[in-house]
Design goal:
508 residues, single chain, Rossmann fold, alpha+beta
Length: 508
Amino acid sequence: MIELLHINEYVYLKDVDIYFSSGLNVITGETGTGKSLLLDVIGAFLDYQNLRSDTFSADMVVDLDSDVVSGEVELGTGQHIFTVERKNKRLFYKIDGKLSSRDVVQDIVSNFIAIHKQNSQMKLLDKTFILNILDKVAEDEKLMEDYKATYQSYLYVNKTLSTLDKEEIESSLEELKTKIEEVESAHLSVDEERELEKIYKDASNIQVLIQHYTAAIQQLEDMEGGTRKFYSLLDKEFHEKLDSLIESIADLENSIQKELSKIEEMDVEDIENRLGIYKRLRRKYGPTTEDVLENLAAWKIEYDKKAKELEILINAVEEKRKLEKQLAKLANNISKMRKDAAKRIEGLITEHLNDLNMNARVGFSFSEVPFNSTGIDDVELVGSTLSTGPLYPLRKIASGGELSRIMLALELSVTSTDVLVYDEIDSGVGGVTAVRLAEKLEKLSKNHQIIIVTHLPQIALKADKHFALIRNGDTGIVSELSGEAKMEEIKRMFGGEEIVEMIRETKS
């Protein structure tokens, strides 16, 4: 339970101490005094981000009747101090004087405090809120974790499938394959092309070259024969130089003979055909042979990429089938647990509504939807004020006051926290219903600490502790009421001295 709420500074509340008791704690005051500010402070320890001031500092002393664990933080039974401070628009949290994270504090506090804020009954029309309620009752956290992990994989596979087109990939692969085979089969070489072009350029002079090369060879042969005649005319000391000369003539003759053989063996038509291949491929994939070969390398890379994409696509299709089976199994199990949970709490809701002077039937309507982040369930609350007949969506049949009571009944049916905080849940409630609501809260306070901001004197009369908030200029004052002071506040709430006198006579 909450033992003490100390507000160092918040709006016009400064250095305020509120000592709560077990049972029913009521907070009253004139409209506009800022009663809800007190609940803002409690909410700051939970998941509320609606603080109305950049300057904020508060401590909350709680007494835990069981151990609470969040991450590496473990709090034993007994008294603990939680601190929240806002500086430079940032919130800082402490537990027992030690800095802690917001997530840890909120996780711990949510284990023993639940807050019902004004207009929170509108959440009854929020299907996500209803699903969360059912999941809480069903205790399907492990299944939901498995489902969400599988669903993320499913989304990834679907994204892959949506970005890859099998027909487009196969068409690209076929086109690339044709290009690659066409160019590779040509065995292109920049050096070969240059040589062929040079030879072909000189092809018109081939006969002249043949004649010249033939004549040159004949002259060299004659020169060699003539040189040999010098052996008999010269002394031996010159023979070595003659040998060298004859050897050089022979080498030159041999080289010219090889070139002559090449020319004589040359087929100009073959050269033209070969150069025609180069020209055709340059025209299709060039403009140069270097460009064609660079494109060939790029095509091979692209082909490997597309082949990999096709493999991924084929695998993704199979993976999607597997994931769909897994999702279906998990989602169906979750849905069954939710439906079982719904059956368990439908009767409790009806019972609580009867206690709140509302004869109504309330149920959960399930419909199946495609896989999404929460499963396959679309759920909404339905109800009727008739004992028989169909149930209709609450959004179509329930007034604001009725929604408020249904919300309270729902929360009472599923609550598991020690401390219940309510901010004007009596909206649209009066008369006999107000009395029944007060009785309900009194009964509930036997097992829970209740902290409630209310305008109903019927509830205030049931209080174990009664606090009144008044505003004096820029200062808010919270007073604990008892005796005559309490009677005066209840008189104000009822709106007449006669009522207070009747209460006094009843008590005497």
